[in-house]
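Repro case for the chain-ordering regression, as requested:
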Amino acid sequence: MYEFDWSSIPGALPFLWAGMKTTLEITALAVAVGIVWGTLLAIMRMSGIRLLSWFAAGYVNLFRSIPLVMVLLWFFLIVPALMESVFSIPRTSDTRLASAMVAFALFEAAYYAEIIRAGIQSVHKGQMGAALALGMSYGQAMRLVVLPQAFRNMVPLLLTQGIILFQDTSLVYVSSLADFFGAAYKVGDRDGRLVELLLFAGAVYFLICFSASLLVKRFQKKVIA
Amino acid sequence: MSYHWNWSVFLAQVPSGGTTYLGWMLSGLATTLALSLSAWLIALAVGSLMGVLRTVPGRWLSGIAALYVELFRNIPLLVQLFIWYFVLPEILPTGIGNAYKAINPMLQQFTAAMICLGLFTGARVCEQVRSGIDSLPRGQKYAGLALGFSLPQTYRHVLLPMAFRIIVPPLTSEFLNIFKNSAVASTIGLLELAAEGRQLVDYTAQPYESFIAVTLTFMMLNALVMVLMHRVEGRTRVPGYIGGGS
Amino acid sequence: MKSRRLFAAALVCSFVSCPILAQELGGTLKKIKDSNTIALGHRESSIPFSYYDDKQQVVGYSQELMLKVVDAVKADLKLLNLQIKLTPVTSQNRIPLVQNGTVDIECGSTTNNAERQKQVAFSDTIFVIGTRLLVKKSSGIGDFADLAGKNVVTTAGTTSERLIRKLNEDRKMGMNIISAKDHGEAFLTLETGRAAAFMMDDALLAGEMAKARHPADWVIVGTPQSREAYGCMMRKDDPAFKKLVDGALARVMASGEAERIYKKWFMSPIPPKGLNLNFPMSEDVAQIFKHPNDRAFE
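-- result from build under test --
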């Protein structure tokens, strides 16, 4: 039987909390940017304008075809150089958080775009037809008729994707950024107590994500009722 | 300072001999494929079963399925993998734990990753199946029952064929995810594609060639699966929904 | 489909141009002077070379030597308020980060070898290790020959990994070799009984042993399979900076300061748990302190 030793955790709590804040920051920004950019991509993809729909499809497929770990790695190595040449931000500033945020936002947008596209497709064709027949323009019909219904259908999925994203932030370990998981791993590695720290991290993730998914469910019931 | 490009590195012999770096990458690709496909079978089987259970009237059955989903969906894959590989053998009865640790380490890593990835993805498939079934008008179920079908028959002949057709796009997404998520298995030492890429960096100090090769291979793999699933999607599309018909 | 391919090509090109972008930088010293900042790369858990203590400060033998180099840079450029920026690096990203300018110098536990010299420059050697085995005292394993048919763990991407694989092939020993992601995982593999031995740099093995639940149960054994020189990593073709770094290290080694730093990290209790590695100075290390040089052993 394994000898558990939890003594590393109390002293590490401030560091773990700082990591949790980083995780929340990345998640919040990526969800916000991801939904906005994802909606635009979904509309572009279904717009019927060839160039736009090709661009959107290319974007979505590109980001969906590469593992997140690789995307993070690339952005971590490239964003600093880009920031320097485009915005002339000195390379000496810490760009790890910025590059992780950019990577997550752009990456998640591809996933949001697919959810939103499926949401729009779940609205019966007749709705669009009816709106157009009432004399609305395409944009009006999309904004006033299709999107509100689509979002209502997909709010639970969008929120669930947010929860997935919250968990995926654990992959920023490739850039040594101390998010919550990274912090737990580092403490465990330093003290030779990896098993304990990872179980602890798992329990914390579970509590947070489970509570969040209960809230999503409650919200879902409200919307449907 | 400049980067010293050297694409011929892939054709060089590896230090322990017997193969080239390209050989390593190919064997990594084979492991990625084997892991992803076997995990996908587990995910589909477990996910479909649990997805159906979540929608049946019995409280117990849907409770078990709900517990499964919540547990596997709310812990990061990375943590789950670690628990399967490192923690579980320690908390199992000593005899079973030691028996597992005695088998070939490669096999240990592979089975841990396969079960972990399969059950993790299964929880997501389960939710898709459930939402597919839930999205059908209630009348379909009642119609099935009114026609004299039993509940299992209604699922088998009425609800599931329709539900699976509706959820083909999100399932495609999960299928693609499983290939990418398999890269996480490198963290327990399984030599799949990303791990072989990392190994190449360590041995040759040529990071960009390796990153590019791994990224492109994943993209090609993805394109292949997409072409395949596009066909499936086209065949299974339900007429009458936006984007469907035609 | 065509546009998708084009887009992919464009993206890859933007990746490829990245390392070339960094070429336009002047010398490292000019960069440090212009920005009034020196960017240091460090490891997170290479005990006792470069790691976080319990207050999340970077400490260790290599870190202390690197700070001596910073002092020399300060004096040379007459920058009294030189800012220090610390970036944690991993064995996977340390070379790209030095090349693209995120990090000016990295002192940790990086081996100076011929392949890496194609990409980066190395300072004079700061430490010499031998690759050996960490085993349970009660296991009865005394040397590499006793490993036949057993599971052996090592850390992915290290020289030890290559050596043990080669040994396995050459002598047909039938070992199962497990490559763990980092030292912490490798030690966990050993501690949970999955492997009979952990092959690694002896100084790092001493560091891992100090973290164990029962440090007294473990012992380092075996004839060293190789010797390796650790050096600080810098950008290539920057003789002015390298000269300054080597000069600073040579002064520290000549004055006896290096020996004091050695005793502090290898022969005394160290954070976070106050354990003593009891790792006496090897003849190799004594030699490089006497005659500093930047030769790789391979």
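Ordering looks correct now. Chain C touches chain A through 47 residues (CB under 8 Å).
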